[in-house]
Amino acid sequence: MPSIDTVVIGAGHAGLAVSRLLSQAGRDHVVLERGRVAERWRTERWDSCHLLTPNWMTRLPGAAHVDGDPEGYLPVGELVTHLERYADSFQAPVETGVRVERVTAAGDGYLVATDRGAWRARHVVVATGPWGRPHVPASVSRAHHDVALVTANRYRNPESLPPGGVLVVGASSSGLQITDELSRAGRDVTVSVGRHTRMPRRYRGMDIFWWLDRTGRLARTIDDIADPAAARQEPSLQLLGRNEADRCAEDLDLAALDSLGVRVVGRLEGLDGRIASFRDDLAETTAASEHRMNRFLDAVDRHIESTGLAREMWEPARPAPLDLTGAPTRLDLAAEGITAVVLATGYRPDHRWLDVPVTDADGSIRQHRGVTSAAGLYVVGQRFQHRRDSGFIDGARHDAHAVVQHLTGRRAPASLSAHRED
């Protein structure tokens, strides 16, 4: 059977980072992509989406960062172009429109079965990203048929939803950005709030990611964390990435949405027909989020004092405490004119095609620094894979280096030719 040294599954930023390093090492490989380069960025983000990380954090092996303002926030469309150019820069061996259907162990390597034939590989690198499949809570399964249920990866813009009010479920970065966009488009919006992480866009004059990097938070490894499972499930930061001069430093949090007229309610308990019920936990949830935010900002202040940066930084000014009271615990969607529910409730791992015993009950891949217990099988780009920033473009490059270093440090296989079995 025709063979190749390494198959990389996924041509997003993580898979391309691995490909760049394999090319540099002279290793024969192919990158299999079910769609086009950066397919998830193309088709599973809303039209106005920007990266939450500043441009200086869009670094990949062999490419310092994107062109333009390093403090700006890249629109997703420009990110796609950037990744296409990155792949072209080293002639990445990407096979597009190839869906991997199963990966099984075969001899001293793996058989990668696709809808366009099979590959035998000595190594396989899973680079399908941290998103997996959208999580649809069981509590919404009894929604009335005339209520449109839309997961965040299928939302595009306000016009893509039926006319009327909208209930957004989830208050992390995606949920709040979608809520903000819908409200500014004139929709009546209710947002259901679960566990979340409030954070200012800038603090003492610098982007919050500058402080996360400066204080070593982004480089903290999973080995230093008392509860790795909880760390990997941390909600994303409530941030807004926009480049307009009048909004680039704007905070996006529940207080900002409340000022726009958005109704803020507690965690969704259930959706039965047209009746939505919510927990009476909004004060508790927001207080916990503010505690985490202030604990980090306290650490920033201590860092500034200990390093002598006080004269160079703005005076501390923190977001005002939230004052959200009187949230309802029950809504009749029909009476409120709510015609659509957007589920920004996160994602779950989805590796059903991986027929190798390296996954946990929740579908996540067991690994350390991208190395699994199955010889020659690796993973990159997972949330908190090793460093806290593993799920960001900037952090995936570290995981890619670790994986390729381990892969190339193994006993080199005999020379293999790059062919596909059709």
Question: What this model shows, in words?
Answer:
This protein is an alpha/beta fold and 422 residues long. It has 2 domains: 3-132 and 349-409, 3-Layer(bba) Sandwich (FAD/NAD(P)-binding domain), CATH 3.50.50.60; 135-343, 3-Layer(bba) Sandwich (FAD/NAD(P)-binding domain). 25% of the residues lie in helices and 21% in strands. It contains 10 helices and 23 strands. It has helices at 13-24, 39-43, 76-89, 173-184, 208-214, 228-231, 254-259, 282-307, 333-336, 393-409, and strands spanning 3-9, 29-32, 94-95, 100-106, 109-114, 117-126, 133-134, 142-143, 148-151, 165-169, 189-192, 197-198, 202-203, 206-207, 237-238, 263-265, 268-273, 275-278, 330-332, 338-343, 347-348, 354-355, 377-379. Strands 1, 2, 3, 4, 5, 6, 22 and 23 form an 8-stranded mixed beta sheet that branches. It has a 5-stranded parallel beta sheet with strand order 9-20-10-11-16. A 4-stranded mixed beta sheet has the order 8-17-18-19. Helix 1 (13-24) runs parallel beside helix 10. The longest helix has 26 residues, at 282-307. The chain is globular. The N and C termini lie close together (10 Å). The model is unreliable at 411-422 (pLDDT under 50).
